Amino acid sequence: MDAAIAYAERGWSVIPLHGVNDDGTCTCYLGTECDSPGKHPLHRDWPETASDDPDLVREWWESFRGAPRNVGIVCGKSNLVVIDIDDDEGERRLEQIASEIPPCPQVRTRRGIHLYLSGQVQAAKLTGLDIKAGNGFVVAPPSARVDGGNYEWV
Ligand SMILES: [Zn+2]
Asked: How far is the CA of 93 from the centre of ligand 1 (A)?
């Protein structure tokens, strides 16, 4: 909850995501059958309800009463473009343009890294990379991963 509120306070639009139970299953009704454990929105209307109001975000998390929930950030509304590097191809492409990318917040994910760029970044530079922007969202720290680890700032 503290992280979600802090993101709202810095103007990022937050959404609650399903969480990961202690046994590694998703908190959604699909449980072990879920193909995206802890990585999908809790609410169907998330594109509209995503919020940067810290009071509202606090209300959401208090209503979960301690149930495991992950936190997502909706990119466009937060003025973010996030590069998702999760394979060798992405890493190679990133090396090619690394000198053109300004210093930015980075998150360690299960298989790679997320780079949080300002929304003003020139899209042409990012050709060939997996980009989350607009109505895309990212799973943000300290969200729980299915492998038992957590997303974390690096
Ligand atoms: Zn699920």
From this structure: 31
